[in-house]
Every structure is written in C-alpha cells, then in structure tokens.
Amino acid sequence: MEKLQINTHKKGVDTITRTIRINGTTFDKITEIAEKNNISFNNVINQIIEYGLKNMEE
After folding, report:
1. Number of domains comprising the chain
2. Quick check: 47 and 13 in contact, CB under 8 A?
3. Regarding predicted confidence, which is higher, 7 or 42?
C-alpha cells in the first residue's frame, strides 16, 4: 500500500457540513500537518478520508 501524501493544492468540490468527534492527540497531529503544509484542517481531514476509502480492504 502506498503512503498517504498530503496534497497542498486546493480542490473546488461541493462540501457537506458535518460534525465529528476525534481524540485530542489525533486533533493535534492533524493540526500540525495542516500548519506544516499551509493548508486547512478540513483539507487534511478530507485527504485522510479519501486515502482510507481508496485503500480499504473490500
């Protein structure tokens, strides 16, 4: 399986607002990734979700 690579290009896609709960450690890691790559927290979350779905075992 290939590793997740964070894309710094923004995509123009339709979005749906939804509330999720994540633990503090995960939040801190995602925030750090977003700041390091100068992209939004939501952008990182969406890339992680897309990667997970693409690489999920059927």
Report:
1. 1
2. no
3. 42
